[in-house]
Amino acid sequence: MAQGVIKKEDLYRLLSTAAGKKKVYAPIDGVGGIEFAEIHEQKEITLDYSNSKLSPKSIFFPQREVLCTFADDALEEVQTPKEALIVFGIRPCDALSLTYLDKVFSDSAGRFKDPYYLKRRENAVIISLACKEPRATCFCTSVGGSPSGKEGADILVYELADKLLFESCSDRGQDFMKTASVLFKQAEEDHKTAAKEQAEKAKDGMPVLNLNGLKERVDKVFEDPLWDEITRNCLGCGACTYLCPTCHCFDITDEENRKGEGYRIRTWDSCQYPLFTLHASGHNPRVNKKQRMRQRIMHKYSYTVDNYGDIFCVGCGRCILYCPVNLDIRDMLNTLNKL
Amino acid sequence: MENPYIPYPVSIDAITIENDAKDLKTFKLTFDREEDLKAFTYMPGQFAEMSVFGKGESPFGIASSPTEEGYLLFTVKRTGTVTKELHNSEPGRKIGVRGPLGNTFPWDRMVGKNIVIVSGGFAFTTLRSAITYMLCKEQRSKFGSITTVYGARDPGELMYKDILKSWEANTNIDLTLTVDRAPDNGWHGRVGLVPNVLKEVNPSSENSIALVCGPPIMIRFTIPVLLELGFNKDDIIISLENRMKCGIGKCGRCNVGSKYVCIDGPVFTYAELEHLPAEY
Q1: Which of B51, B52, B252 is the closest to A271 by Cβ?
Q2: Could you tell me the residue range of the domain that residue B60 belongs to?
């Protein structure tokens, strides 16, 4: 493990030096809140945030992506993305979520690899930023994460008073730090102590949800009328699924102009919409919002455990923070687990 | 498959109208590139995505059998954007095929068994594939008796009429055709719903496996009949349909519980389905 300290104001210099030809993504104070964007100078970067509004999944799995193009009845493949990225400032929960998306898009049996997502992931360095103060909606420690978790990160950075402490957690991260080694100062004992204390404090401040036995429980109560009750207020807007860092459902559609030229694109889709599962015959296996919200919860807390061995929730709390009718997934889980 | 989202280029070689309502057409497709034909190895029960560029793609069961070499058959009902465009196409048009996708009927387990086939409506496609496969000279001796009950709303809605005629004359298969309602003249088959006719045909469950494809309502009423006939839950094989996009287990919509119809199915045993939610 490599460690090193830089001054906050030297962050862009460090990232751009180590980047070479890679593009640098970092959190900026955007129009709709904190977002990740390609940056070109230090002053664009903000460190004053608890988390980005949209999850950084869109860097690797964009909301709209061209799969291939066509003209008349002939198809042309597009090149899979070649650009290499350095992504700074992802929170540990979102870094963890990338390891889950990796499982979906790489397929354990290796039969169907998604070249678009995987190409971007292969070429990326993830530098995540440990949380100092979790939000009231955060619950990462209840779902296997931590405010200073390293999973999914190549480097974990701790924000200290006017400095940043870098700690590599993968070979790729170590190589990155080596490339820019002249810019790092040695990490002193008090830096490390401060980082450790900060991590402990962030962890201790978070309420713990007891999700023991949740999977077995939700598997058993699939038909329980309680699902009607806990989903009654849901508007079916799907905001939770768009904001969720592990939601990965998509649609594939064609768009063409009058000359018959166009694209086949994939766009984010949501299990909360009735059209998502509507058969051509008119039959719909998930016809009401109870069934659709149940699908969302079962998918995250049961089906992915069967298929990938993980709960596909990292406790980022976005779905709680931005739900227009204040549905709280923690309450739903608590209620289900007590059934 | 290097990029599993990219279809093989194929050409529509011939189009056959299958029913009186003319909303079912069978498309015979040939591969534009020899190497794609070789790469597309499949077994009955699998499906593929047919693509019309600019309109989209949709999944269809493969109606041809791997023993029918050099081409693929798909029977398509006209319902939406892609299928309407296909129905409006002429032979010679270039389209795309992506696959083969999904699992197959359990061929390893079917060897040495009597095969009972139960089907209704236009879900008969992959069973056309299965029967054609089993009836071919090299395969027939591997299976016991083949008993088939196939039904449609009325005689004009039965598909593959020529092939059905040849099967009726073929002693290697016991074919019973039925319709929900028959016109006054000219119908020599049975009249009645598939589950009821299956009961009348009364196939033995001894050393037998049943393949069931049809609309959800037919499947629901057929299963109790098969159980009553003494079939094990493991030996009732059902092919499911759900809305799909990617066909490769990623886009998230065709799941039934933790199983994806596109990669874990479309073929399931009743024993498996019994433990899954009825979201299909």
Answers
A1: B252
A2: 8-101
Stretch 161-200 of chain A: residues touching chain B, C-beta under 8 Å: none
My answer on whether omega of the bond before B66 falls inside 30° of 0, hence cis, is no
Is there a domain that residue B92 lies in?
Answer: yes
Q: Please check whether residues A178 and A234 belong to one and the same domain.
A: no
Whether B22 and B41 share a structural domain: yes
Residues A144 and A257 in one domain: no
pTM summary value: 0.94
Q: What is the extent of the structural domain holding A130?
A: 3-54+80-204
Instruction: List Cβ<8 Å contacts ≥24 apart for B130-134.
Output: B130/B44, B130/B45, B130/B65, B130/B105, B130/B211, B131/B167, B131/B173, B132/B44, B132/B64, B132/B65, B132/B67, B132/B68, B132/B163, B133/B43, B133/B44, B133/B65, B133/B66, B133/B67
Q: A182: buried, middle or exposed (CB in 10 Å: 19+, 13-18, 0-12)?
A: exposed
- Per-residue model confidence (pLDDT) at position A73: 82
Tokens of A46: 């903000």
pLDDT of residue A281: 86
Write phi, then psi, for B164 (nearest 5 degrees).
-60, -40
What pLDDT does residue A76 have?
A: 85
A171 and A126 in a common domain:
yes
pLDDT at A110: 64
Could you tell me the mean pLDDT of each successive run of 10 residues in chain B, 280 residues long? Answer: 89 96 96 96 97 95 96 96 96 96 97 96 94 96 96 93 94 94 82 95 96 92 96 96 94 95 96 92
Question: Would the pLDDT of A204 be above 60?
Answer: yes
State the average pLDDT for chain A. 93
* Structure confidence by residue, pLDDT tens digits, A247-283: 999 999 999 998 889 999 999 999 999 999 999 888 9
Q: Same structural domain for residues B48 and B97?
A: yes
Same domain, residue pair A137 and A114: yes
Q: Are residues A25 and A132 in the same domain?
A: yes
Could you tell me if A42 and A143 lie in one domain? yes
Q: Are A260 and A230 contained in the same domain? A: yes
Which residues of chain A neighbour B77 with C-beta distances below 8 Å?
280
Show residues of chain B in contact with A307, CB under 8 Å. 258
**Is the pLDDT reported for residue A98 higher than 70?**
yes
CB contact under 8 A, B243 and A279: yes
Tell me, what CATH number does B163's domain have? 3.40.50.80
Mutation for testing the B interface, residue in A119, A252, A257 having most B CBs under 10 Å: A252
**Which residue of chain A is at minimal alpha-carbon distance from B60?**
A280
Last residue of a domain, one of B45, B70, B101: B101
Q: Considering the domain boundaries, does residue B269 fall inside one? A: no
Last residue of a domain, one of B40, B71, B101: B101
Alpha carbon of B35: minimum distance to chain A alpha carbons (Å) = 17
Q: Are A24 and A39 in contact (CB under 8 A)?
A: yes
B49 found inside a domain: yes
Confidence (pLDDT) at A339: 67
Whether residue A303 lies within 8 A of chain B, CB to CB, comes out as yes
Q: Which pLDDT belongs to residue A338?
A: 83
A77 part of contact set with chain B, CB < 8 Å: yes
